[in-house]
Amino acid sequence: MHDLQVNGNKSVRFLCIYLLLCLVSPLFQIPPSAKAYNDTVITILKVAPSQLVVEEEGDPLPLVNVTIEKIEDLYAWQIRVYFDETVVNITKDHVWYPENHVFSNNLFLNITPSVSFDSHGFYVLFGSTLVGEEQCFSGSGMLCQLNFTGIASGISTLNFREEDTYLLDSNLGSILTEVVDHRQTGFLTLEPDKASLFIYEVQYGVTLSGVLTPQETNAGVTFYYKTSNSPWLRIDEVTTDSKGTYSYLWKPPGAGAYKLVAKWCGDEEIGPVVSAIETVSVLEPPPSRLPYLIVVLWIGVLIFIAYMVTKEKTSETSDSITTSRSLPSISTWVTHSQLTIFERPKEVETLNEQGNGYEVKRRGLIFFRKDM
After folding, report:
1. H helix or E strand, kind and range, residue 200
2. Alpha carbon of 103 to those of 107, 108, 113, 128, 168: distances in Å?
3. What is the pLDDT of residues 253-277, one digit of tens each?
4. Which among 307, 314, 360, 369 has most CB atoms closer than 10 A?
5. Pair 66, 101: CB distance under 8 Å
6. In angstroms, rounded to a whole number, what is the distance separating the alpha carbons of residues 149 and 165?
7. Residue (of 287, 281, 262) closest to 201 by Cα position
8. In the chain, what are the domains?
């Protein structure tokens, strides 16, 4: 009997501890957060050297390399590079793909370069594309080489024209690119007013603001976003004020982690500039805990019932042990007197009201001995 009582108490204590853990465990749950992935880097398109110095006509000049850095999924490219035709000259025969260019290990379309001029000056137009299902290029490498000839003393700068220079991915989407040429380098900041928000807060939007240096009035700043599995997508364009600052209210299209950048295309003196990448996370709302609390409540009710049943059995076992030790056996009572048993919920021992017998009262039972 004693072992049964001990085991019952242990079971009740175990169930109580389990219920307590169920109740407090939600307090230690980690709040939802955006899925993490590696930071995206901006591709760099570079021409080097970005200026050619001619001291005398016919002086040998260094080869000009057009390269890309940190690109992913390159399928096609085109460049337009402007030069000073009064200082240097070039023909289409002096524009080529080097042996180790980015598409050298794939089937690609060999395009004839063009040397021409427009309202901005003389330029070289060149490009290439993969054919069919060829594997795209990822990494850093060389696109082409330009071999200029000096025709007069002077300095010729080499600069890209943004509108006609692009890199395309396998879906023929534009790859966000920062170009580096001889133009001055600007600086552009991007600061979202919040790093995360729940999806039901999207209607209030995220304010994107920043500053362009040097200060440019009415400079067009374009915003782009990217998710883990998407290319860079254009959001919108705003213009800077007289202090070079800008602000834009952006409403994310849904839940997820968004990489954001701002870009200014530059002008004839300042080259294009891209801001640092910022992240904004749109979170799903936390799940309702009402079903969970209902389940925990039912568990609590079942544990309480089990506890009361165990306690009742333990008490009855204890009473029977006490009665067997302190009272004569029922058979002895029956031998000497008349014994009557009543079912009454009392727990006292007293002389009955009539004074003609004794009641030995235990939990749930009354043993009445009537004197003869």
Report:
1. none
2. 7, 7, 16, 9, 13
3. 999 999 999 999 888 888 888 999 9
4. 369
5. no
6. 23
7. 281
8. 32-182 (2.60.40.680), 183-285 (2.60.40.10), 327-372 (no CATH)
